[in-house]
Amino acid sequence: MGKAKLSPGQVAHEVRQALAAKADPARARGAERYFKETVRCYGVAAPEIHALVSELDGRIKTDWTVDDAIALCDILFADEELEAKAVGALILGRFKKTFPPGLFAKVRSWLAADRLASWASVDVLCPDAMGAFLERYPAYVERIKAWAFHRNRWVKRAALVSFVKLARKARFLPAVYEISASVFDVDDDLIHKANGWLLREAGKADPGRLERFLLARGPAMPRTTVRYAIERFPEAQRKALLVHTKPK
Fold first, then answer.
1. CA atoms within 13 A on the CB side of 33
2. Which CATH number is 1-96 given?
3. pTM above 0.85, yes or no
4. What is the mean predicted confidence (pLDDT) over 75-91?
């Protein structure tokens, strides 16, 4: 008789035990000081998190479905520690080929409920998982535009960073620029930085289009967004764009 299937609850228990065993309080304090928002950490390094995810994936991939991975996220996203949330998000990403349409509302609910209340957690989940979701279900590109107008800052950030890897591949660029422009007036540094990151990645695919966008819309952009967006341009071009995009 083969081994019984591990439940999401059992895997969550193992994750917490493994992270607690690897905890480094000094590293945790350093990581927590890096955030403006209040976060909790075990102090486990990223390579160790990825090794844990790979080990777990080897044990569950033949038995689990995407529903089990979503259930694991429901459990681990309720934990305070960033590393637990990261494990849940990374495990979910292993099931991207079978993501169901209902994942869209589930992710929005996690974000709106502050289950992923840091830029780090949003950025682990959304560029990979939501990027894969949008590629699988392109009709949802129109629906995610509304996230940029949500009152929750993490839903707003997700609207941007979900397109980061897609923009790099020149996917959905009209939507990328539309969403970017829709958050210019948002008074939130984490949105300004995410927007600049997204534009920078879009510029890798089509630098001319990014330059034209900056010249046309730059004066309305937060300066942080502009500075992030132009990072990959040559120095002379960066300096010229900083001049041309100054608010009137």
1. 6
2. 1.25.10.90
3. yes
4. 98
